[in-house]
Amino acid sequence: MATQNSITRAISKLQFWKEKADSVLPWSKASEDSTEIAYSDTTYFQKADGKKELEILYRNNWAVFKAINVRANLLATRGLKIICKSDKAKNVVKNFLKDLHPTRPMLALQNSFRNRSINADIFGNAFEELLYIPAGTRENPADPKKARDLLGFTPIHPINIDFLRKPNSNKIEFKNGKPKGWKYTQDPLQDYQAIKLPLERIAHLRYNVIGDELLGMSTIEPVFKTAERLLKIEEGITQGILTHGNPLHDVIVGDEAHPPTKKMIDNIAEEVKGLNMKSEYVHPPWIRVGQIEAFSLGKSPNYMQPFITAIAACTGVPEFILLGRGEGTNKATATAMVNFVHQTIEPLQQTQALFFEEQILSPLMKLKKIDEVPTIEWNEILPKSVSDYANVIKVLSEAMIGGKQIITFEEARELAGLGKSSDFKKPSESQLTKKAQPGIYLPEPHSKLIYNGRKKIIMKAKRYSKMEMKPLIWFSDSKAYGFLKLRSPKVVSLDEFHDLAEKHLVTEKERKKWWPDIKRFYSYEFNILDKFKEPKPFKPPKGTQTFLKDVKL
Q: Do residues 522 and 461 lie in contact, with contact meaning Cβ atoms separated by under 8 Å?
């Protein structure tokens, strides 16, 4: 056996040097000293049956499903910008996105990053087919080198695609130091004819890569067995509850003065049979039966905890997010979220940005004969400064816990070094009628939409820096509704204005009436400091358009 292994390794070594000599890749001195040659370039989870098991695990294990989706949702939730230096590149990108989706191009692009992240986490690889013109036929796709244009991209299921490999071998076919191409198989587990695709036709994303391996590694592979065991434990606990969750019927026949006969016991057993679809014990009074009550399984979560912790640790998702908890947590919770974003999510964003620039935008610019390659810029998810917890709270409460704050306002102030007292004190009724307050005018129905919690963004055509970060009464033509605080705005384009329509609720008719020629807007997120129990009557001065320095109720 040892001799056979030595021969196999020697053959592999010779093949390695032959491929190295033919390759155009730069080789380092370190690679020349390699003594171990990996002559199997695929693992079980990189083959079709293994990939199918990863998908089934994602579909069946709630903790894995939640962890992967949290990573993908957080990666894409705040959106992105495509930065172009030249007007020519800007027009090309704009048309490209319109082909991607005619009405909500940026939202469609944002969703593509989210879905691609899910694929890369589950399978280790995510693939997009570039839609070139001419397309060729399904069986014989056209060579991208002869393309006239690029319409967009569409996802390919990772199970269905692999590199072209040598006949009767797992070896990838190479040409000039690069893989020769791809093969698409409708069902790799069946004997379907594979379709050959040129290398440049597929964009390939990987999150986890070992050395110079061409295929990525699944994020959930290290906890595959852990997640399987969690499923089995949950099933075992469920079976235990079904079998022993209710007290078993303890039917006593006779007493010491009237000893039961076998016939009596048999008759009673037949009478109570199937009473609650569980076993019934029918016995004389001198026999006692132990029963298992439902509350005896109350400690079952303790059995599952180590497995949930392992899944959280492997995926980088904080455990309180994985379990859907957050209310009443302490300062460490917010710190953990900040670390999660900057240590786990931002590297994924950077990988996706490089992927999109190099494998999608670069071919597009090349076809259009533009030297520039636009860049992806992600909107900030959470501030890098751990002291800016006002913004941290807002983002976490909106994006992560379904509207529930993850830390209290007092905790945020304490972390920011501001003490526990608030910088905004709700005025009394007498103060509201005597003391004037600054205010912001919002025509109906927008004031009422804020009051009802439907409107999330205030759009303006100008920036009003002096009115930011201070308590303002918001009012309409006839009512005042409460106090809010404008946060620092984001500058958005007309396309982004349309993408945010569900948050600002400004209709197209209103936009054309108020800002007919405006192409750039200021998007103000805001905090509700206080809502009046009932809107108060208020008549603003004639000609009021945006702000009032003195609002007296």
A: yes
What is the Cα–Cα distance from 341 to 72, expressed in whole angstroms?
Answer: 12
| C-alpha torsion 55→238→243→302, nearest 10 | 140
3-state helix, strand, coil in the chain (%, to 5): 45, 20, 35
Range of the domain at 482: 429-551
Checking if the pLDDT of 25 tops 50, the result is: no
Please indicate, yes or no, if residue 449 is contained in any of the structural domains.
yes
Q: Are 542 and 497 spatial neighbours (Cβ–Cβ below 8 Å)?
A: no
**Is there a contact between 348 and 116 (Cβ–Cβ < 8 Å)?**
no
What mean pLDDT is predicted for residues 51-78?
94
Residue 439 lies in a domain: yes
In whole angstroms, give the CA distance from residue 57 to residue 123: 11
| Residue 507, domain member (yes or no) | yes
8 Å CB contact between 294 and 241 = yes
Q: Give pLDDT tens digits for 505-547.
A: 999 999 999 999 999 999 999 988 888 989 999 988 887 888 8
Q: Calculate what percentage of the chain has a pLDDT beyond 70.
A: 73
Q: What is the pLDDT of residue 488?
A: 87
Residue 291's φ and ψ, nearest 5 degrees, are -120, 145
Listed range (24-38, 94-108, 268-282) with the worst mean pLDDT: 24-38
Q: Which two tokens stand for residue 393?
A: 């709270």
Alpha carbon separation from 185 to 140, 163, 490 (Å, rounded): 13, 11, 46
Give one DSSP letter per residue of 100-164, joined into a string: H-SS-HHHHHHHHHHHHHHHHHHHS-EEEEEEEES-B-SSSBPPGGG-SEEEEEEEE-GGGEEE-
Q: Are 314 and 220 in contact (CB under 8 A)?
A: yes
Size of the chain in residues: 553
pLDDT tens-digit readout, 458-478: 999 999 988 988 889 999 999
In a domain, residue 495? The reply is: yes
Residue 551 CA to residue 538 CA, distance in Å, equals 9
d(CA 521, CA 527): 20
Nearest-angstrom CA–CA distance, 423 and 91: 47
Q: Which long-range contacts (CB under 8 A, 24 or more apart) does 238-247 make?
A: 240/297, 240/300, 241/294, 241/297, 243/278, 244/292, 244/296, 244/297, 245/294, 245/297, 246/276, 246/278, 246/294, 247/291, 247/292, 247/293
Q: Between β-strands 280-283 and 249-252, what pairing exists: parallel, antiparallel or unpaired?
A: parallel
Number of domains in the chain: 2
Taking the C-alpha atoms of residue 331 and residue 228, their distance in angstroms, rounded to an integer, is 33
Q: Is the pLDDT at 96 greater than 90, yes or no?
A: yes
Strand bridging mode 174-175 / 178-179:
antiparallel
Q: Are 251 and 282 spatial neighbours (Cβ–Cβ below 8 Å)?
A: yes
Token pair, residue 478, equals 């006839």
d(CA 348, CA 340): 11
pLDDT at residue 414, as a whole number? 43
**Quick one: which H or E segment has residue 179?**
strand 178-179
CATH number of the domain bearing residue 472: 2.30.130.30
What is the Cα 233 distance to its own chain's centre? 27
